Amino acid sequence: MRVFPWGFWLLCVASAPSRGDSGSKARSCAEVRQLYGAKGFSLSGVPQAEISGEHLRICPQGYTCCTSEMEENFANKSRSEFEAMMKEAGRSVQATLTAQHRSFDSYFQDLLNKSEKALYDAFPSMYGELYTQNVKVFKDLYSELRRYYRSSNINLEEALNEFWTRLLERLFKLLNSQYHITDEYLDCMVKHAEQHKPFGEVPRDLKVKATRAFIAARSYAQGFLVGSDVVKKVSQVSLSHECTRAIMKLMYCPHCRGLASVKPCNNYCLNVVKGCLANQADLNTEWKYLMDSLIGVADRIDGPYNVDTVIGTIHMRIAEAISNLQENRDSITSKVFQGCGNPKISTKGSSSEDKKRRGKVTLEAKSSAQALEMLVLDAKGNLTALKTYWITLPSSLCSKKVMASSASDDRCWNGMTKGSYLPEVMGDGLANQINNPEVEVDITKPDMTIRQQIMQLKIMTNRLGNANIGNDVDFQDTSDDMSGSGSGDSCPDDVCGKRLSKSPSTRQPETHAIPKQSGHGVNGASSRSLPSASLLLLVSVAVIATQHLWR
Question: pTM for the whole thing?
């Protein structure tokens, strides 16, 4: 009889299928049957005890409690559950950003409403006919201010200039109602009167301060909405086939293996989730820029731009301007008559109401600076906490949702059995997944939905960067090939076609194109041109390929 070497028998024993920790006796599948039924699946065909696992395509092919159908059902379930985890995490961030937007929007709208109401309450008794015959001029101003704040495509400086021009025309007519003043005469009057500052320094001062405050407030409010929308869209991105297999192996294969009570190894979980969320992690850089930009503008709103004082006292500045005109009425009228000639006497005569009697008055403004300070403080705390959201998401999901073991645990599920997990943890982002041992990731095919959202973050960050220095930026949704350089050389017809302000400080908003999938845009707060998304992709692929060849 031929005797086989001891090494041969040891090899046979070592290569025999393992049964977890149960030795040679087939283990009961009661735990898996209970779990499977709880997930809503029929128990028909589910083994009572372990069976051979040669049929398995995802889980290790040792003894198992899962049939092919069970493995497929668990895979689909793991996919839906992981996507639900992503959406739940995203909803938490969305809720935070939406709440911040709602708080600031409510504060700002209330500030504007109170100013308008104060004007309507005080001006009738202060100015009488000067106000009652010009109510629409004031209403139109506040309407334009609201339209701008809500992102309508209007030029704020133009709107303010138009208000002062219309107000000057109406008041000049009322203050000189004994004359017949034509539209042509009013055009001449405006040209001559503006040289002598009939409203004093109020129009110029208010334009500078209100423009900066409104630009900052509008961009700030939009920033929260853009951030929330990006999270929503990214959270809806479906998992790849390779990711689904990896998630199944992580979450349900231990149950099939008879190791239901064994938690996944922490580093094993991190590699799986980092591989699945490789594209999402690439949002990190631009996301941090957006959070930092929002914090920067928040400091401006509660600091140099003094939104509470500027917006809350618009009615007071208008009253001051009207009082200046009343005081300088005779001088302004004389100079206009010298430059435009004496108008004809009106046959209707002047109104019996004395339009000069009102004089200077004092209005009070209730400060809400403390409320703004608290809003900004709360927002900055939340924004700081959200900075690292995309790169801390894998560890958050592993610890709170997947319930992975501690990093030092060497008796955890490592994808094959209970033991330690040896591979190193991959870095963040798509490029770092080239050697991911758990998820096969094609680093040459970035997710286009996420690339589009990265571009939206860049555009919004650029807008906030401009708002931080008092510059306005209008974005036109267009498929034209525009440079997006921020030079302001190109502007929409509905803006350029309007009458330009006579003030040398007036500037047109910078105009940028919102890019399509491979369009152009701006990066950060700078005004440089960006290469197309396809060019960026080609360059990144070339760099990654070169690094791989040198390994």
Answer: 0.77
